[in-house]
């Protein structure tokens, strides 16, 4: 299910005002305008009534009904051919010249306004345009196609409201966008029939933050939560892969947009940002370059990056995590990981803690230590031991002089055990060969990996000279390590953790139907759980670390192949 949430403002509606003066007259025959603040609802209501007459001319009994073609009342942008609004030229809404100059903001210079005042007599509204929605919907469809979600159920929430006018003589509802929301819902129905438009009206006051927060929590969010519960009933734990929210950042009071973003943040929404609002107002055309799509991670200032573009410490912790992952997968099925240590969830989580010990002698370089950890579920009534806390506790046990300032970052990776608990070997390692930490012979999780003292920005040549590659680790594991190499060649197949497809900027969405739900639940391959954020208990530990070391970072991965990472700070 795909959700687009759009706050309707006065920038969402533009009218075309026209007059026919014949040939040879040097005055504009049509001009764009917008109703003034307290005339917005009145004008919108007049337009809605006329649009309904054009839709059903025979039922409405309009005098021009016999001459109206079923498609003539629709209008598209000449450049992009995208739907832009409704054509009312067959039945224009008459407006007096005094009302025109008093109640509308006109597009054009002062000279144009003067010519209109002098030469225009009988004026009418001949078209209505929705420039923001006309941009958002094609861009949204393009994004859904990119994410293979174009067949999903698509719902558009149109949020309307009103504000307290500065003039106390004006009614609070005169500036309301509720009727405009009805017009836009009709626009969606006519041009994008596969989408469902849902109107949500807040009343007043849209300019106050407290009122907006109450509206979002009491009116808007319960509607999304109801859709979410329906999805949970159909898909179970896989509901997140089917539930995506996109917020339209266009125009509106800052209190409104801030409350909207804060209330829906729990859904990790994407964003459609219209950074240029007035292209149609100035040029009478739509420009798709005026709207940008941003993923939640990009808005959160933690975009997906390749390790090669990160700093030296991040590259180091990624290399160590790749090696840890390869060793864990090569040993799968030999011990009691599936039968005892993780018999409940069967969801391994690996953690790598990077520690920088200050030099004991002035002038020497600091020592880098890497500590591994993984989750355990020995007794569920007493709770599980998370990988992050395991790594921190093991590091402290190895070095009681450890300080929080020495903890630089921790990497977290989620894996999946084989369905049958049997070892799945891999014919090749998906990770890139590269330098990593110098290992001790034992690969036990409680023995830290010691790295020779190096600077943070050390050269890659020095690292490659002293560190084994991932291929070396695999040959050791498949050859002489832990009972292998007995002369019997075991059946080989690629490990699912190393062949997970690259996910797009967000999880793939499937159409909301019974077949898709069953495929998701009963699929042969388990879902990749990355990026895997720390749980609540681990987050508390990391927050305490970050209080003394605010530069402490958490590194998570796009998927189990560890080719791209997210880098986040706790504080």
Task: Describe the overall structure.
With 571 residues, the chain is of the alpha+beta class. It contains 17 helices and 19 strands. It has helices at 40-55, 57-60, 97-103, 110-119, 131-146, 178-191, 209-235, 254-264, 279-283, 296-299, 312-330, 337-341, 387-398, 460-466, 470-479, 514-521, 536-548, and strands spanning 2-7, 14-18, 30-35, 74-76, 83-87, 93-96, 104-106, 122-129, 154-162, 195-204, 244-249, 270-274, 291-294, 349-357, 367-374, 407-414, 449-450, 553-557, 565-569. The strands form three sheets. Strands 2, 3, 4, 5, 6, 7 and 8 form a seven-stranded antiparallel beta sheet that branches. It has a six-stranded mixed beta sheet with strand order 10-9-1-11-12-13, with helices on both faces. Helix 1 packs parallel to helix 6 (178-191).
Structural class, from helix and strand content? alpha+beta
Q: Can you summarize the main beta sheet?
A: 7 strands, antiparallel
The global form is elongated
Percentage of residues in strands: 15-25%
Low-confidence stretches: 22-27, 59-69, 421-492, 507-519
Mean pLDDT: 77
Number of helices: 17
**How far is it from the N-terminal to the C-terminal residue, by CA?**
33 Å
Rg to the nearest angstrom?
A: 31 Å
Number of strands: 19
The amount of helix comes to 25-40%
């Amino acid at each position: 299910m795909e959700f687009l949430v759009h706050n309707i403002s006065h920038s969402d509606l533009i009218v075309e005002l026209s007059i026919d003066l014949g040939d040879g007259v040097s005055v504009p025959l049509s001009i764009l305008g917008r109703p003034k603040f307290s005339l917005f609802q009145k004008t919108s209501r007049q337009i809605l009534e006329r649009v309904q007459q054009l839709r059903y001319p025979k039922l409405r009994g309009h005098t021009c009904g016999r001459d109206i073609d079923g498609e003539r009342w629709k209008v598209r942008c000449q450049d992009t051919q995208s739907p832009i609004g409704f054509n009312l030229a067959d039945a224009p809404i008459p407006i007096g010249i005094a009302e025109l100059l008093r109640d509308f903001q006109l597009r054009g210079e002062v000279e144009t306004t003067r010519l209109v005042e002098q030469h225009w007599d009988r004026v009418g509204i001949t078209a209505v345009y929705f420039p923001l929605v006309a941009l958002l919907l094609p861009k949204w469809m393009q994004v859904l196609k990119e994410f293979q979600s174009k067949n999903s159920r698509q719902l558009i929430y149109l949020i309307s409201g009103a504000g307290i006018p500065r003039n106390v003589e004006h009614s609070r509802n005169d500036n309301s966008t509720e009727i405009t929301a009805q017009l836009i819902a009709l626009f969606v129905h006519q041009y994008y029939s596969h989408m469902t438009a849902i109107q949500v009206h807040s009343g007043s006051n849209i300019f106050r933050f407290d009122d907006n927060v109450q509206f979002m929590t009491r009116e808007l969010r319960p509607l999304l939560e109801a859709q979410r519960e329906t999805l949970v009933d159909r898909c179970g734990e896989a509901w997140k892969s089917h539930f995506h929210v996109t917020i339209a950042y266009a125009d509106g009071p800052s209190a409104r947009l801030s409350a909207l973003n804060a209330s829906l943040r729990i859904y990790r929404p994407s964003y459609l940002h219209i950074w240029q609002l007035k292209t149609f107002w100035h040029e009478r055309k739509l420009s798709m370059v005026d709207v940008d799509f941003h993923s939640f991670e990009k808005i959160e200032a933690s975009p997906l990056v390749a390790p090669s573009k990160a700093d030296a410490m991040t590259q180091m912790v990624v290399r160590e995590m790749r090696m840890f992952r390869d060793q864990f997968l090569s040993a799968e099925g030999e011990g009691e990981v599936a039968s005892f240590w993780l018999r409940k969830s069967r969801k391994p989580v690996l953690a790598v803690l990077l520690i920088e010990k200050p030099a004991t002698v002035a002038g020497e370089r600091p020592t880098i230590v890497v500590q591994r950890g993984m989750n355990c579920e020995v007794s569920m009534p007493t709770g599980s031991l998370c990988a992050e806390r395991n790594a921190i506790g093991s590091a402290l046990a190895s070095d009681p002089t450890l300080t929080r300032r020495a903890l630089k970052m921790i990497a977290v990776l989620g894996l999946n055990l084989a369905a049958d608990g049997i070892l799945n070997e891999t014919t090749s390692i998906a990770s890139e060969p590269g330098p990593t930490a110098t290992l001790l012979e034992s690969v036990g999780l409680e023995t830290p990996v010691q790295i020779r003292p190096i600077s943070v920005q050390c050269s890659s040549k020095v690292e490659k000279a002293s560190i084994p590659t991932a291929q070396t680790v695999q040959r050791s594991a498949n050859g002489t390590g832990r009972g292998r190499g007995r002369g019997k060649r075991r059946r080989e197949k690629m490990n699912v953790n190393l062949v997970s497809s690259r996910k797009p900027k967000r999880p793939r969405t499937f159409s909301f139907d019974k077949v898709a739900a069953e495929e998701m639940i009963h699929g042969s391959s388990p879902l990749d759980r990355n990026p895997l954020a720390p749980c609540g208990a681990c987050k508390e530990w990391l927050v305490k670390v970050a209080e003394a070391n605010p530069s402490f970072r958490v590194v998570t991965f796009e998927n189990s192949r560890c080719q791209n990472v997210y880098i986040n700070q706790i504080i």
